[in-house]
Write a structure and sequence with these properties.
This protein is α/β, with parallel strands linked by helices. It folds into 2 domains: 3-50 and 113-339, TIM Barrel, CATH 3.20.20; 52-97. 40% of the residues lie in helices and 22% in strands. The protein is built from 11 helices and 14 strands. An 8-stranded parallel barrel has the order 1-2-9-10-11-12-13-14, surrounded by 6 helices. Strands 4-5-6-7 form a 4-stranded antiparallel sheet, with helices on one face. It has a two-stranded antiparallel ribbon with strand order 3-8. β11 (231-235), α8 (244-248) and β12 form a beta-alpha-beta unit. It is globular, with a radius of gyration of 20 Å. The protein starts with a helix and ends with a helix.
Amino acid sequence: MTLRENTLAALRGEAVEQVPFTCYKGLMPAGAEAITNLCMVVTPRAATLSTPGVSTTSEEIAPGRRLMRMETPWGVLTREVEVESGYGSGWTREHWIKGPEDYAILEQVLRATEIVPFPESYAEARETVGDRGIALLWTARAPFQRLWIEYSGIERLSYDLADCPAAVEGVLDAMLEQSRQIARIAAASEAELIWLPDNITGEIAGTPIFARYMARYYREMCEILLPAGKTPCCHMDGFLRQISESIGATEVPVIEAFTSPPDGNLSVADAFAAWPEKRLSLNFPSSVHLSAPEEIRRMTRSLVAEAGGRPGFVMGVTENIPASVGARSLEAIGAALEQD
């Protein structure tokens, strides 16, 4: 099997030649391509989104701080971002949504947005990685996750769900309709694996929120994608023990970016016990990258042992690795898997 074939087999729950080892291509440090059992992961987009009459600008207002401005026919929204120097990540200081009146503007923007299939993105991604990688076709976050992560922040959203629920629900409904359109595009695409990039953690999407907003969403996505022969992979990289039963009730077949202790709160063994029909694609615990190579190898062997030889298990890296230890850590993980 090629690296691609081996990884695809695992994500389908089929037998593999060895435990697959993956890493998002954008996170791979220099020299990681030399790790012979490392399968690259790329995330091309299923569709392009554009909104006639809406323009977004960005200007630097202080060193490392930018003000983004969205001009629309229905009003103006702004967002202030601080860019940290380590990985270039943006930390939102002020969200797009600052008050109840902003939801109406955002809803109009969402409903006016044109969504167009983008098959070239997937074709280019497949050509880039060849048999040494897989492509997860990027769709959209679940509306609840998308709203608080991309537009409002969780504190603002929590208040507004209580104070102006109709305004919030209007935006969530518009986002859901977009998700349906993008899922139908993904279902008609050539991609085998469909990425639901939701960043789920039970600390925010707890049982009541999951039941109200996530369960329905995953049901709809699976109703569109599974009959088309696609494999939805949902990015759930947070604390999952408190919502493990809720996750188990969904039809999502692959829990991607699953993070075990010491960083997460649900072990691989407990996850497979709770979800015997699902597959796990891991994020190697980020804090362990800082350990000595022997400890990294020990953790790798421990995670494999917890999986107990079950099909549907992938060792992966889905979060940033400290630059000073990136290559060393990936080499240690790869070596441990080859020795297993």
